[in-house]
């Protein structure tokens, strides 16, 4: 698809990076606040993914804290199994988050194409996700929205975790933090109870079940529907239900992760407990983290790992939430509303320069 350049009269000339520094290629994703673009930094020709998020939509959905929280968390995180932030900036209408581009697309897209994966492929994916969660949990952070849409593949088939909008630094009194995605949300989160790292491992179990069977154990788009199913029955994979060419250890791994009660769930005591499950016996974790392990699923090397029809789809805000959107757009004319986004800036090159300077002084 063709490229297009955007001009922005709203860009702040006093900051080192803005929308005008990028060439926009095409849309590779959509979210609740806007689009995700494949972009090129003109100066260096580096390729990135850019989340372009409407301030009006953010205000209308009362999500200012969420987007600021993501920017703040990502400034403290850097790991090869998460999608790292490179730049963050804003203009009068939008905020922008520039991230590593994962050319392999997201796991939801590949699940839609493949329907299910082999045990070998699934184990590799789960190991990548586990490594990302280990890093977060060891730093006291809960992701709270682990799902196939937030798992993206690089060109070699390694999986990285993204979207930290509802991630939180763990707080023992967090019963009110009930955000998440139905189908992947842990029962304790859904039922407004205090929760810890085990909530992320429940989601991991749902994903492992989905990779194995091509469907989630608890169906339903609404939280109430899923909640009723979870409360009604503890789903477990029986021995005669294990797909052909899958091991009993894999089924046990899934069964122990999707336990409704966190006290019974694998992962309650942290990542080492999950990594030590018999399914991962003899798994070479160092080879994985050194990126010397060959992925058993390598995505296409062309640009067909994204649904490029996304840019053609209708904007859902035109109908149901148009009034709320318009009210929020009007609010943005006030400096007090713009001030809510103060500090939304990050430039990794400045951060690196600062680190080098500090290192020199020491």
Automatic annotation (TrEMBL):
It catalyses: L-threonyl-[protein] + ATP = O-phospho-L-threonyl-[protein] + ADP + H(+); L-seryl-[protein] + ATP = O-phospho-L-seryl-[protein] + ADP + H(+). It is an enzyme of class 2 (transferase). It comes from the Eukaryota. It holds the Pfam family Pkinase. GO terms for biological process: intracellular signal transduction. Signal peptide: none annotated. InterPro entries: AGC-kinase_C, Kinase-like_dom_sf, Prot_kinase_dom, Protein_kinase_ATP_BS, Ser/Thr_kinase_AS, Ser_Thr_kinase_AGC. PANTHER family: PROTEIN KINASE DOMAIN-CONTAINING PROTEIN, SERINE/THREONINE-PROTEIN KINASE. Belongs to the protein kinase superfamily. This is non-specific serine/threonine protein kinase.
């Amino acid at each position: 698809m063709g490229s297009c350049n955007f001009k922005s009269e709203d860009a702040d000339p006093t900051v080192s990076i803005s929308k005008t520094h990028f060439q926009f290629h095409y849309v590779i994703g959509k979210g609740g606040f806007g689009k995700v673009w494949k972009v090129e930094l003109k100066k260096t020709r580096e390729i990135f993914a850019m989340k372009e998020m409407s301030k009006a939509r953010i205000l209308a959905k009362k999500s200012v804290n969420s987007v600021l929280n993501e920017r703040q968390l990502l400034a403290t995180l850097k790991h090869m199994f998460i999608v790292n932030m490179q730049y963050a900036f804003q203009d009068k209408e939008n905020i922008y988050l520039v991230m590593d581009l994962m050319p392999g697309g997201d796991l939801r897209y590949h699940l839609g194409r493949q329907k299910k994966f082999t045990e070998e492929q699934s184990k590799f994916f789960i190991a990548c996700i586990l490594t990302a969660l280990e890093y977060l949990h060891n730093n006291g952070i809960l992701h709270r929205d682990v799902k196939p849409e937030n798992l993206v593949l690089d060109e070699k088939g390694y999986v990285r975790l993204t979207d930290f909008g509802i991630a939180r630094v763990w707080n023992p009194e967090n019963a009110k933090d009930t955000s998440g995605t139905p189908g992947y949300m842990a029962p304790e989160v859904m039922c407004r109870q205090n929760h810890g790292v085990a909530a992320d491992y429940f989601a991991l179990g749902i994903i492992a079940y989905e990779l194995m069977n091509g469907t989630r154990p608890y169906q339903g788009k609404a939280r109430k529907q899923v909640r009723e199913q979870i409360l009604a029955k503890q789903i477990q994979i029986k021995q005669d239900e294990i797909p052909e060419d899958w091991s009993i250890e894999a089924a046990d791994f899934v069964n122990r992760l999707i336990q409704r009660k966190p006290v019974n769930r694998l992962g309650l005591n942290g990542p080492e407990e999950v990594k030590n499950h018999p399914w991962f016996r003899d798994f070479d974790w160092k080879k994985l983290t050194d990126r010397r392990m060959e992925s058993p699923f390598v995505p296409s090397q062309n640009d067909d790992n994204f649904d490029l029809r996304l840019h053609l789809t209708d904007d859902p805000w035109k109908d149901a939430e148009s009034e709320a959107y318009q009210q929020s757009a009007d609010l943005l004319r006030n400096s007090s509303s713009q001030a809510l986004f103060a500090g939304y800036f990050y430039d990794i090159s400045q951060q690196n320069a600062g680190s080098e300077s500090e290192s020199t002084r020491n």
